[in-house]
Design goal:
The complex is a heterodimer of chains A (about 325) and B (about 650). With about 325 residues, chain A is α+β, with helices and mostly antiparallel strands. Chain A has 6 helices and 12 strands. The longest helix of chain A is centred in the N-terminal third of the chain and has 34 residues. Chain A starts with a helix and ends in a 31-residue tail after the last helix. Chain B has about 650 residues and is mostly helical. Chain B has a single domain, classed as Cytochrome c oxidase-like, subunit I domain (Cytochrome C Oxidase, Chain A), CATH 1.20.210.10. Chain B has a two-stranded antiparallel ribbon with strand order 1-2. In chain B, α7 packs antiparallel against α8 and α11 packs antiparallel against α12. The radius of gyration of chain B is 25 Å and the shape is globular. The chains are: A alpha+beta (about 325), B mainly alpha (about 650). At the A-B interface, α1, α2, α3, β7 and β9 of A face α5, α9, α10, α11 and α12 of B.
Chain lengths: ~325, ~650
Amino acid sequence: MRNSKKRVSWRVAQVVISSLVGLAIVGAFVWATQGRDMPVLNPKGIIADQQQVLILITVGLGVFVVVPVFILLFAIAFRYRVGNTKAKYDPELEGSKVLEAVWWGIPLIIILILAIITAISTHALDPYKKIESSTAPVKVQVVALQWKWLFIYPDQDIATVNYLTIPDNTPIELSITADAPMNSFWVPALAGQVYAMTGMSTKLSFMADAPGEYRGASANISGEGSADMSFMVRSVSKTDFSHWLYKSSYSPNMLSWDTYEKLAQPSRGDGEKTYVVTGKDLYNQIVMKYMDSGSSSQPHTNTQTDHTMNGMDMSGMGM
Amino acid sequence: MIDQIMQTLFGRLTPQDFVHDPIMAGAGIAMVGALILAIAAVTFFKKWKWLWQNWITSLDPKKIGIMYIIVSIIMLLRGFGDALLLRAQQVVNDANGVEILSSDHFQQIFSAHGSIMIFFVAMGLVFGVFNLILPQQLGSRDVAFPFLNSVSFWLFFAGMIIINMPLVVGEFSNAGWLAYPPLSGLQYNPGTGVDYWIWSLQIAGIGSLLSGINFFVTILKMRAPGMGLMKMPIFAWSALGSTALIMFAFPILTVTLALLSLDRLIDTNFFTTTLGGSAMLYINLIWAWGHPEVYILVLPAFGIFSEVVATFSGKKLFGYTSMVLAIIAITILSFTVWLHHFFTMGAGADVNTFFGIMTMIIAIPTGVKVFNWIFTMYRGRVRFTTPMLWFMGFIVTFTIGGLTGVMMSVPAADFQFHNSLFLVAHFHNMIVGGVLFGVFAAFTYWFPKFTGFMLNERLGKMAFWSWLVGFILAFGPLYILGFMGAIRRMDHYDPSLGWQGLFIVAGVGILFMGLGVLFQLAQVAYSIWKRKEHAVGPDPWNARTLEWATATPPAEYVFATIPTVTTRDAFWQMKKDHKTNDRPEHYEDIWLPKNRSEGFIVGMAALVFGAAVVWHIWWLLIVSLLIVIVVLVVALTRDDTEKRIPAEEIAREELRRATV
């Protein structure tokens, strides 16, 4: 009698303790996330918008498996606990063709749906695809350096370091390379990332919905100063963008090949800078810099600005 | 002149290489101190002979398995310490100019954390469990190639020492656990760090490859009579899948590391951008190994949970054939998904679509396994022992990890997750919640088999709950931080982003996991201290498979007579037929492998070889390589390799064990 009383109070204590722990965990999460910005779930650009929808669809489909798993796990474990002698015990039960068919079948159907979504979305959101818009696109060439980002506006002969000013509701077409270890260009509020690699030029397009400041970073380590490689994307109205261009064209800093080579030296904690580009075809030279010494084994008659990897340059790599 | 002599003698090693910052020096001194203490203790208690005869030169898989597990536990503590430092740095975030770790040191630590946890914790634990359980579960006395087994272990050991050497001399790689070029190339990393990484993994990796071959052959050729493939315990099936993957995947790693090393040693240009090389080639190759590696680790965990859930439900595993098919499907599919690790590299939409869909297809057989595990409890009698708690925790965490994995398998969505802390949370979900929980379950489940006493259940349950709470707190915030745009491997971030709170929660989570580790250490210590009270017979859990049919702890020869198998769950059948106490009329002589010192010598020579390459000491490299070759040739041409245990001795031993 006394023993069973003790057991009951231990049960109660267990329930109280686990509820308190649960509450504390929830409380900690609420405390740490409240009021924080989640750019992936709170996107500000047409590409990131679609990526967010895609993420939500995937989670929605996944819930069809996850929820039954959790319910079955706890329900079955509870029902067939050793103390419950009323439950049926069938130690020789080996399986069930019907049930197994169900759980080969249902995930199969879910994955089939997801595969179709994947095929469509991967093509629709191919970073190399240009955004259709009535507004003419702005081209930007992005160079990852040790440890800062250089943005060149080839049509305006302006360059910036560690910030990117863009007009809103205008497609921004980026060509991305590196003159450094591999980096990854990522502005979560605007679009998912693409690698920045030496000797090649990858592409990405995005378009901001509205004026605002969006944080970008390099998602791949590139040496000591990797964590310093964050930058700001400033989306402004089209008039403000013109003003900014005008103002920038009076910048006292000139970017030629010589000044570029100085800029490309490893450095940390560089602030924002604005340049007037005087060097010709700078981006192309940076990409080709890594190709010249390979001339004996890989003749480069191709002088096109972007020798992209689209169409799988990697096909020759023995995959 | 003297400089030249010194350079010939010591390569690029100079006294300055021994100078370290306080944290690293502290760790190095602690490590060397512990080693000296251990050596002193062995000498003081006059245990050298015992150590040499019973452990170092032993070819007994039960001994080798225990050595794997001890090394892995020590490395788990090291990797855990690394994790603590990393999180401490991110919690403090250089506030008020307090810098716990420099950027470079921080990067060395996360590179070491990843490499150690995968190669010297997860792999070591898996091989440890293979060694201890597989032969017995198959009704065999030994593995197919006992000497090879010893060589594998000592190569693993050598790799382990090399990865810890930078604590004392030189520096470690700062290029992450997979060392992508060009960052890991000569241009950006001329020091010893990447070389340490390469040669630690290379030497341990060759050991893993040899082990993989060994256990693959063991499973195929050493099963007890009557045990057809479809009568094998499901753990053996999972090991078959895992070792098949090792045989196909590890040669890729060996070649990739060799090419990277050539780039660094003689300036070839396989992975540079110049001279026709390509870093993308490296990234493809390393993941063609790296993705199967995930399944090499997790398949055995699947096998462990299959055994655990069947035993503690007192019931046959639900859907055995489905389980086998799922393992085969996962094994094959795991070679077709590697590109999902770099959807962001700019491959076309068609390529990304293919690899995305292949990746999500793996979710189907994995999902089938989850449902089969759950339904194994259906109409069972479920006992919630510690291994079963790990099972429940595993299903919950693994299902969440599976969901986030599928989320990342959609390429266009992955662009938002790649290299973020979301990804970090996902793979810890799989490796901690899957592999580590699996090994913890295995440890508690099979511990009494090899010691004759149980682990204390109460401390075990406290460890479980600490780990579970810690797990939720440590990795939940990382998912959220991923949505906030936080990338992995940051040693500092802009405080205005408001990420610090989540890093603090994650840090608290690590402390809870640390509490779990303390409970586990206490559990082992307490159980050993009170071993008389925890003592049990050979079948403490009412288990189902053959490894429980032998004495506890098992004799060196394991099975006095090799059993004949008629059904799955062979031991369960023996118990039903009341045949567990059957003794044969007479015993036969048993031949077991003799102790061999060559495995240890090869391992130590490989260790010297590794250090010689790292420091460019060419004469030492040649000498150590020659030792490896000569010792192997001598070892492999020896005939007198087995010892006889006479039948009378077996009869006496069996009688003694029966009467205890």
